[in-house]
Automatic annotation (TrEMBL):
InterPro entries documented for this protein: Carb_Metab_HTH_regulators (IPR050313), DeoR-like_C (IPR014036), DeoR_HTH (IPR001034), NagB/RpiA_transferase-like (IPR037171), Tscrpt_reg_HTH_DeoR_CS (IPR018356), WH-like_DNA-bd_sf (IPR036388), WH_DNA-bd_sf (IPR036390)
All residue ranges annotated as the HTH deoR-type domain in the record: 47-102
Record-linked Pfam families: DeoRC (PF00455), HTH_DeoR (PF08220)
Superkingdom of the source species: Bacteria
Name assigned to this protein: DeoR/GlpR transcriptional regulator
Alphabetically ordered keywords of this record: DNA-binding, Transcription, Transcription regulation
Single GO term (MF): DNA-binding transcription factor activity
Parts of the chain that traverse the membrane: none
């Protein structure tokens, strides 16, 4: 019987350094271009195209969550976070908790330019909804600010700089402006001083905005802004949320409140019928603009 040392050893295939580098590159490519889960809304197989889509979405909405982006593109959240990191290095987005925002202080203006027709229709419907109200609280936001020029001969309560400017231009007889810590991303005032001012006033109706709305409630990206929304709602007899269809069925990092906070939702006709039905079942009066 041959000794163990005389038995032939298995021969391992030789792998060249070039093959190792190629294999690592292939793995990185697979990681960066994962195929979507079943039922995903869209598929991107090239990282540059996927990142271009993410950049456009962040620029349009001002904020995009990693979870929402992953579902839209059919990739993992890890892939989206890597893409956001790359885009941040390029200076085109800014990473925040749960997603990414537009860089710099001009995101408000970019959001204002997106979906102008839908926002105008929602604003017009909101103006009709508050026709009998003497005191109206107007939240900060690109849709809510569009209502301000349509409201005359009543008292407006707001912490939004664009709303303050609009009301002073049209010469409305009543304006209560809450000052405090200025936030460039929402062009509004917030913090303890603004909250104290708003708590001293009772309003007939509040027009609120939100970054996102789903079955669990309202979502935002700013803790101070979320606190102001809760104060406006608490001080108002009726609360109306203005949100275009692009904000529905989504989430953002900061939970503002549950669905109980609002009485009415005004959105546009692109909104998902299934979600609207569930919101109505939760006791919200849904109204379509346009």
């Amino acid at each position: 019987m041959p000794s163990p040392s005389s038995c032939p050893r298995p021969v391992r295939p030789r792998v060249s350094r070039r093959q190792c580098v190629t294999n690592r590159t292939d793995l990185a490519s697979m990681s960066d271009n994962q195929h979507p889960r079943e039922g995903a809304a869209m598929r991107y197989t090239e990282a540059p195209e996927r990142r271009a889509h993410l950049q456009r979405a962040v620029a349009a909405d001002g904020y995009l969550s990693s979870a929402d982006a992953a579902e839209r593109l059919g990739v993992s959240e890890m892939t989206v976070r890597r893409d956001f990191r790359t885009l941040e290095e390029q200076g085109v987005v800014r990473r925040v908790a749960g997603g990414a925002t537009a860089p710099g202080g001009s995101s408000f203006e970019r959001r204002d330019a997106v979906g102008a027709a839908e926002k105008r229709a929602i604003a017009e419907r909101a103006a009709r909804e508050v026709a009998g109200a003497a005191t109206v609280a107007i939240d900060a936001g690109t849709t809510t600010q569009a209502v301000a020029p349509l409201l005359r001969d009543r008292t407006i309560v707001t912490h939004s700089l664009p709303v303050i400017e609009a009301i002073t231009r049209i010469g409305s007889p009543g304006l209560v402006a809450a000052g405090g810590h200025y936030q460039p991303d929402t062009r509004s005032f917030a913090g303890p001083l603004a909250e104290e001012t708003l708590r001293s006033i009772r309003c007939d109706v509040a027009l609120l905005s939100a970054t996102a709305l789903d079955d669990e409630g309202l979502w935002g990206t700013n803790v101070l802004d979320a606190a102001i929304k809760r104060v406006l709602a608490a001080q108002s007899t009726r609360v109306i949320l203005l949100a275009d269809a692009g904000k529905l069925g989504r989430v953002a990092p900061v939970r503002i409140a549950g669905l109980h906070l609002i009485d009415v939702l005004i959105t546009d006709r692109r909104a998902d019928a299934g979600l609207l039905a569930r919101l109505e079942a939760a006791g919200i009066d849904v109204k379509l603009a346009g």
